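Just scan this pair:

***
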Amino acid sequence: MQIKWFEDLMAIAEWKNFSRAAEVRCVTQSALSRRIRSLEEWVGVELVDRGTYPVQLTPAGQVFCDEARHVLDGLLAVRANLRNVERMPGRSIQITAGHSLSMTFLPKWLTQFQRHNERFNARVVAANIHDAVIALEEGNCDLMIVYHHPLAPISLDPQRFGSLTLGHDAFIPLSAPDTDGKPLYQLGQQHQPVPHLAYTATTFLGRVEDVVIQNAPQKAQLERCYEADMAMLLVRMAVEGYGVAWLPHSAVADELERGLLVPAGGAQWSTQLEIRSYCSNANQNSTMRSLWSTLELASRNSASS
């Protein structure tokens, strides 16, 4: 038996829909169904009535769900107390950030924030979007900082988690330049397929990349020649002239300034990414709560100005 099966059952109880519950739990619907079946086999009775619409828990499932929620709350509380002992000394928070943001945006943001506010110690863990969401949901971090795009949203319960905008980042197609400073590969003007340095299908930036390509005014003739799950890996390949890569501006600011990369297409091939911070509303870390209050005030002031 795995604790995540409890959370799967609670998601079905809340959303009454396998598809929506799977989306919230960041798994495929088939994976969620298998995990619920495994839980039912462990308990020994059916917990979900699959003959109703919307989906309902069976009477046994409701009893088990209520007890599982109580047990899980207790386990998480004990874990939180134990982890407080292992925290960094003094005022501290634990941050989980997307790989690119942890190397580009986060260091500068922390420096600027602490220059004008009370200082705190920070432990930073870089992660992909799936692992970052799990870390936040399971209380393994105080603050999550990741990219957001309206056409590739992150499914987090707004009743449990707050979110604030910290900034924006352009997401643009780039290529190494030729001897005249023009892109080696130009989108929309090619007579043969353009080599595409792509993200793996399961990554957040890969989903945004697909949205941009699908919504472009003309069909892109792209030939996928390389895949990676991190933007920094694609940067190096693009600089070496292997093809076109869609990259956050913050990740390539230096390469653009030095002329190592140039835009491979106009604005129709680009989009804006929002940099968002997320925090659990149940988080009781006083340093985190003070930080969040400061961020909320800055957000309100920015919106009113």
